Amino acid sequence: MKPFAYQAPTALQEAVAVLAAAGERARPLAGGTDLLVQMRRGLLAPDLLVDVKRVPELGQLGTGADGQLRIGAAVPLDRVGRHPAVRAGYPALADAAGLIGSVAIRSRASLGGNLCNAAPSADSVPALIVLGATALVAGSSGSRSLPVERFCTGPGQTVLRHDELLVALDLPPALPRSGSGYLRFTPRGEMDIAVAGVAAWLLLGEDGRVAAARIALGAVGPTPLVATEAAQALVGRAPTEEALAEAAALAQAVARPIEDVRGTAAQRRHLVGVLARRALAAALERARGEGGDGR
Amino acid sequence: MADRVRVQARVNGRVAEFLCEPRQSLLECLRDILHLTGTKEGCSDGNCGACAVLLNGQLVNSCLVLGVEVDGQEVTTIEGLAGADGLHPLQQAFLEHEALQCGFCTPGMLLAAKALLDRTPNPSEGEIRRWLAGNLCRCTGYDRIVAAVQDAATRMQRS
């Protein structure tokens, strides 16, 4: 690795100021499981790493007075996936956080890092999207928040400017009679990257019909994709197997998969249908209180 | 050479102080500066687990941690696993079950198994296999490793 300087600020404003001063030559460091690999391969060669793990705002995890769950951007996936509030109210995120890499990776890799790395196959991003998460961003000219579905702009590309830092992910209060799930396909059972992944969220009305739904797809486009029409087709209907299968077919139409070493476009489109049906079924089971918390 | 940074950490229960460049991984610091060569370098990209150590009790790949990041933290390497009164029950079980051949993966495998038993004292076979998925072994086929971890778990619960 090319030599670089290292700073570990302990306050958010300090971290933002350091990043702003260094411009394109600096990179924030959280878990490092993507960044250090990319640097070792020579894909990135920053002059300065700004370790953000000592910034309190990036390490917080808990429910605020407004009922929102706030997850600091540098919180490791292991802590996210095992947190009782995540498992109870946001099981799609617990599913995804428990699938990424190995135990040793999940001890370090952060939720914010998975989003900022912006891999099209990032497991946590479809889950965050269906759960309605917003990204809180701090910059030298103030802070802003935006829906996670607008965060990634292409493979490895995000809306973040060089003087901006992802601070936290905010998840709206978990509603009664709601449930969610994330499923992916990998040739190996562990330590693999999704060929395709689907997250689903359902809210049931008191009559048991679908009151609201969201579906998001991973690894079948340059960014995670939102299957709006597929989800909308469920609203007002009884969540029968036929209804879920119809929504899954509509989700397939949204996929824009490429062919690569992990799978063909046809296989990926097929997988979206299978995974969407199963993710919706998992979300339904959890919305009915049958599925328990995350796996 | 970039400026070196002073790092003070607790390594295997003792204070260790060293100078390193920010680009040096914890793995390099352990092996080349502190001469704790029980931790092995395999892939250097987080896939194989040969360099696994415990950082504040959590299993990590030391190739993906910078030496400067462990300032003020607590690190346990394979050299710190055995107690004053002899081998750790996991080490004893690995020997008795012949859960190693070339031995290159063994330090990481043992620390991964320790992290598992610290969290889940009585894991199922499936839990052991899933937990150890980040530690590659090209010799044993894993069955003996799984049996050794199960046996160590049983012994540790009895004692």
Walk me through the structure.
The complex is a heterodimer of chains A (295) and B (159). Chain A is an alpha+beta fold. Chain A has helices spanning 12-22, 35-40, 77-82, 84-89, 91-97, 103-106, 111-117, 124-130, 228-232, 241-254, 265-287, and strands spanning 5-7, 26-29, 48-51, 61-63, 69-72, 134-139, 142-147, 152-154, 157-158, 164-171, 178-185, 196-204, 210-218, 225-226. Chain A has a domain at 178-184 and 192-287: Enolase-like, domain 1 (2-Layer Sandwich). The mean pLDDT of chain A is 96. In chain A, helix 5 packs antiparallel against helix 8 (124-130) and helix 10 (241-254) packs across helix 11 (265-287). By secondary structure, chain B is α+β, with helices and mostly antiparallel strands. Chain B folds into two domains: 5-80, Beta-grasp domain (Ubiquitin-like (UB roll)); 89-158, DNA polymerase, domain 1. Helix content of chain B is 33%, strand content 16%. Chain B has helices spanning 26-33, 89-96, 106-119, 125-131, 143-158; strands at 5-11, 14-20, 52-55, 58-61, 74-76. In chain B, strands 2-1-5-3-4 form a five-stranded mixed β-sheet, with helices on both faces. The radius of gyration of chain B is 16 Å and the shape is globular. Chain A binds chain B through residues 1-6, 8, 29, 31-33, 36-37, 40-41, 49, 51, 53, 78, 101-105, 107-108, 189-191, and chain B through 1-3, 5, 21-23, 25, 44-47, 49, 52, 55, 58-61, 63-66, 68-69, 112, 115-116, 130-131, 133-135.
